[in-house]
Each structure stands twice: as structure tokens, then as C-alpha cells.
Amino acid sequence: MGQVQVGILGCGMITQKWHLPTALANADVHVSALVDSNLRQASRLKDIHRLDCVVISDYRQAFENTDAIINALPNHLHAPVNMEALRAGVHVLCEKPWATNAADMRACCDVANETGLVLAAAAPWRWVEGRELFEMVFDAGLIGAIKGYRWQHGAAFDWPSSSNFYFSKAKAGGGVLIDEGIHFIDFLLTLFGPAKHVRYLDDNWGSGIEANASLIMEHEGRYGNVTGELCLSRTHRLENQFEVQCTEATIELDSRDPSVITICREIDGKPLEETLRLPQTRRDGRRNPFSLQLADFVASIRERRAPAVGGQDVVKTMELIDYCYAHAERIEEIWADVADSLPGLSR
Q1: Are 341 and 40 in contact (CB under 8 A)?
Q2: SS3 category, 182
Q3: Which numeric CATH code is attached to 4-124+293-309?
Q4: What is the pLDDT, as a whole number, of residue 343?
């Protein structure tokens, strides 16, 4: 089999920064089409990279001369376009969120099963070294029993989006939870197992999307019962750190560099930090999760097998996000209640 002909749908920043460079670096892939409603933007990418491909605005035309697509369109177009592509005989690697709700995700999986084609979910946090390192340390019993975790991830929103769909409930499906939190929720469910108890709070007053959110989960999995909190923000910087408290140590991972973990403990009353990394990371630098997931996608097409992260593998993540939005509580906002605490003032 020659190169897999891949069309990239959506030429926004995620494609410019990750999907297109990754595809061009893979010798088994030929980028056959760039699709975007903004033809000028797609043409610019073609010229910059000197590509031999078509530039089109109608994604359906891309199905004619491609084996597979990378779906990086706005969120609300993920599920319907995935199903159209699969029915047209085209394999799919879909950017997150893989749908805007679990029902649409399950529908995509049904079509993939009917057609026998590959539906892969882009989930780069499944491929980071830190996930493998956590499992190695937990399984080796180096840090005792797991007591709980806290993950903070946040900064003022500065993603250079080429459209405004991020701020539309109908187009995005939600705010910081489904956009960024989906990575970490999927990571946590994969590491600690299903969440049997969930409490979710955000700052959506009911007419828009959330910018700040807090998710408390109790998991039941291979490491027993583990409870933790995930805090997310699009308005201010948080610690951007994943911390797991254990009986004999604390393990830390920096969200900005998930290739290493740090074990913090005391020996003879003195603090000690041990940094762990995989040997190839030290030799070759951080591995590229986007490269790994694309290579697996291509291999799954050629070998006629399921991808490492298929659509069915992320349904539980989408179901949890659905549950959070359906059972959301208001996050505490002290400034909103200031009138109640000042004598002589009322709202």
C-alpha cells in the first residue's frame, strides 16, 4: 500500500500548529486536500508548505480523492461530518471534542461499526510520557497508597482562534470543560477508572458558556477508590499542575511538560525531589503525541485493526461531560454576593 491520502478539514490554529506539520513529517501520509470555508487561509498553508493538494471549501469534495480525513472543523461539525465521511468510505481521525454530546458520539461509533472503517479519537494526553510514568510508579508500589489528587489548569484565554465558535454554546458545545477539561477528564478516567460519584460547579449563569469550572470525582478502578478535584479556568492563571497525594510521597506533573513526573518525599526529615523520565525522552527529547496518534491511525487503516484510541474508547468521557452540564451547580463567586455582606446595601 502506498501513502495514505489524507484530507485535513479545517485550517485553523490546531491544524497549522499540529495536524499539518505532523502529517507532513509522516512518510506514510500524503496531504491530498486542505478544506476550509476561508479559501485564502487554506491556500496560504498550501503555499507556505509547497503542497501538492487541492484547496476546497466543500468538505464533501475531499471524500472523492482521499483515504482518510483529519476532522478539525468547529466542534458542532465533528459528529455529522464524521458520519458523512464514514458513509462515503473514508476513515476518520477526529479532533476533540469528538462530538458535542455522548449521543452523537455513540451514533458515530455505530456508523464506524456498520462500515468497518476506522474512527479514531484525537486524544494526545493518552500518548504523553507522564501517563506511562504514573502507571509505572503506582504499579511498582514506590509511593504507597493513593490518597487523592488535585489538578489545576488555567490561564487567560489566548488561543489564536481564526473563528468565534469557541464562544457559542451551539457551535462549541460548552466552554472550558469540553474544550480543555476533556483532555484531563479522559486522562483521569483512563488512569483511575470510572467516576462513581461526581460533583460539578461552574460560572455559567445559564445563558452562555462556562469560563471557570470545578469537578470533584470519586473513581473506582485498578488503584482502588481515588477522589480528586479538577479546576479549570479561562480567566486567570492557575498552578497548571497535576498533584497526586500518596501515603509515602506526592507526585507532581506540570501540565506544560507532561514528559516528566516529580516524586516529592522526606528522608530523615529533609525534603527530597526525584525527577523521573523515560530513557528515550532524555536521549531524543519529548515525544510528539500528535505524531504517535497519527502513526497509529495510519497503521490501523493499513492493518485493518482498531485504533489505540477509537471512538468507543472516549464515549465514557463524553457521558461524564454530559452529566456535568446536566447537573451543574453555581461555583462560588464572592463578588456576586458582596451586597449581602455590606450594611445598608441590597440588590
Answers
A1: no
A2: helix
A3: 3.40.50.720
A4: 62
Neighbour order of strands in the sheet with 29-35: 54-56, 29-35, 4-9, 68-71, 91-94, 119-121
Question: Phi and psi for 67 in degrees, rounded to 5?
Answer: -90, -30
Structural domain boundaries of the chain? 4-124+293-309, 128-285
pLDDT beyond 90 at 286: no
If you search the block for the grid coordinates 461526581, which residue do you land on?
198
Taking the C-alpha atoms of residue 320 and residue 16, their distance in angstroms, rounded to an integer, is 30
Residue 27 confidence (pLDDT)? 97
Q: Is the pTM here over 0.85, yes or no?
A: yes
Across residues 242-248, what is the average pLDDT? 97
Q: Which helix (H) or strand (E) holds 150?
A: strand 146-154
Phi, psi of 88 (to 5 degrees): -90, 5
Which pLDDT band, with edges at 50, 70 and 90, does 310 fall under? very high
128-285 carries CATH number 2.60.40.420: no
Q: Which three cell numbers stand for residue 90?
A: 473514508
What is the mean pLDDT of the segment spanning 223-227? 97
Cell numbers that stand for 156 in this block: 487567560
> b or e along 299-310 (b: 16 or more beta carbons within 10 Å of the residue's beta carbon)?
ebbeeeeebbbb
For 113-159, the pLDDT digits (tens) are 999 999 999 999 999 999 999 999 999 998 999 999 999 999 998 76
Per DSSP, the residues of 122-142 read --GGGSSHHHHHHHHHHHHTS
Three-state helix/strand/coil letters over 200-264: EEECCCCCCCCCEEEEEEEEEECCEEEEEEEEEECCCCCCCEEEEEECCCEEEEECCEEEEEEEE
What is 330-344 written as a DSSP string?
Answer: EPP-GGGGHHHHSTT
Q: How far apart are CA 118 and CA 297, in angstroms?
A: 8
What residue type is assigned to position 319 of the chain?
E
- CA-to-CA distance for 330 and 206, rounded, in angstroms? 10
